[in-house]
From TrEMBL:
Residues 19-288 form the ABC transmembrane type-1 domain. Residues 358-588 form the ABC transporter domain. One of its GO terms (cellular component) is plasma membrane. One of its GO terms (biological process) is glutathione transmembrane transport. It comes from Paenibacillus montaniterrae. This is Thiol reductant ABC exporter subunit CydC. It is a multi-pass membrane protein. The chain crosses the membrane at residues 20-43, 52-71, 129-150, 156-179, 249-282. Gene3D superfamilies: ABC transporter type 1, transmembrane domain (1.20.1560.10), P-loop containing nucleotide triphosphate hydrolases (3.40.50.300). It is found in: Cell membrane.
Amino acid sequence: MKELALLTKALIQERKDIALSIICGFIAGIAGVVLFAASGYLISQTVFAPPLYTLIVLTSLVKILGLLRAASRYGERLYSHRATFSMLGRLRASFFARLVPLMPNLLGKKRSGELLARIVGDVESLQHYFLRVAYPPMIVVMVFLATVLFVSAYSVWVACLLIAGMLATAFVVPGLVLLGQRRVHGKLLEQRAAVSIEVTELLYGFVDLKVYGRLKEREEQLHISSDALVAEQHAAARGLLRGQSLHTFVTYLISWGVLALGAYLTITGSLEGVFIAMLLLASQTLFEEAAPLANLPAYKQDSEYAAKRLAETVHEDSTRPPGKARPRGKVQPRDKAQSPGKAQPPGKALSAEQAASIELCELSFHYEHKDRPVLKNISLSIPPGCKAAIVGPSGSGKTTIFELLLKLRASTGGEIRLNGAPITELDEASIWHAANVVLQRGHFFRGTIRDNLLLDGEQRSDEELMTALEKVLLSHKALDDEVYEKGENLSDGEKQRLALARAMLRKGRRLWLLDEPTSSLDYITEQHVFQQLLTEAADDTLLIICHRLTGLEEMDLIVVLEHGSVIEAGTYAQLMEQKGYFYEMKQIELQMIGDE
């Protein structure tokens, strides 16, 4: 399947260690067979009191083979596991790199606990693909062929019996195991994800669950999921144990067959009795080497299912029709739809040295499997240095525009241009580097205020950091004050002001993208912070999303969205004069302020 083909490609990159592990594995396997065959022959020869030199040679051979087997087995384990862990490292890095740009879309479809289970558990399950699926058959085939050639030199009938036993081990036993595993196929990984979901939900919502008296109920649900996971683990373990038991049964059945056949051949004179113990121990050692074949189908299924889940996680249709470039100006009327074209590969950098221009040309977006589009044919031009605001009710598509500008999502129609260049041609990292971004829900890491202000890794003095805090009225905070994970010990207003201070410290960025940066502030603090923002971005392009209309009198352009479409656009004075949707929103806000 395609997913395992990608896994095989990753293994090819570790071909040196894989080749060494196969060589060491073959030496260890054949040394084991010869070791026990020589031991059996030595035991048989002692009955006939052979010359001393014969015993010395046989004893020395056994010791040498024992050392050789141990050394080669160590090398086999070393190289095979090193190849596996290197492969897993490559897969994790590759999977995470593909996952990061898709996170906004994925978090809307999958819960964080399930994503965690796939990143950790499913990738971990792929270690079985080489160690227990691809590697064992190669070793068994080589050791088996060498052993059959060796045994056939003494008895063709015993060799035929070994061939029959190996066919049963390679096909019959795995087939029976596979039939038993069909019921539990994939359920273990799914249940592991379910437990991860319950744990993350419980941890994230602990306070709310405690307040609303639902904590015990969720704890019970977690216990139920945990018990179900244990049950699936037991079922999977029973399946593996069943395969091992069947293989052991076949091994002893063949051993008894070799013993009986050897006795018969000795009686008929076709085989010397001194070789019976040698052939018996050789057959037992051979089938011990073949033990991994019994559970190979089960591990193969697990690897395929894990690879499929990972592929589904990062699968995204990257093909989308680009729009046609627009001249700068105010909101443009809708043009005819443009035919799809092939986007150039990303790689160009967005310059951070000049204020950016933003053009939206017939921009559309809708989520997969959703009929109603989020954005519908939006055309908008924001010249360099313009101060623009996007307002509108919740769910009108304001935040989606930001996500498209940052290439966190791909539009389903139309085109975005930054500084005249289609965004599809720009490297997303250069966009993030050139922009001061404050998202609606910024993240804060466990550490101190200083650590979270210095998130970009640049060195700044304490005076610079305190100046930034003063601008957002956080001067009462010390730089060494502790910040909990996700900023749990900060109020929503403090989080927003800290995020703004962090953005103000990033000098030289000429594009500001702010999503509800002051929604949790009181009106007095909001007015002060808003003025500081306008001062900081005096010569830069500033695009802000807001619900509250405070301070918009100083904006060059206000765009009003509703249900994913532009219904009004203009300056504050123009919109108030029109007495349309924006005017009604402002009147309601003034009335609410008056009531307070």
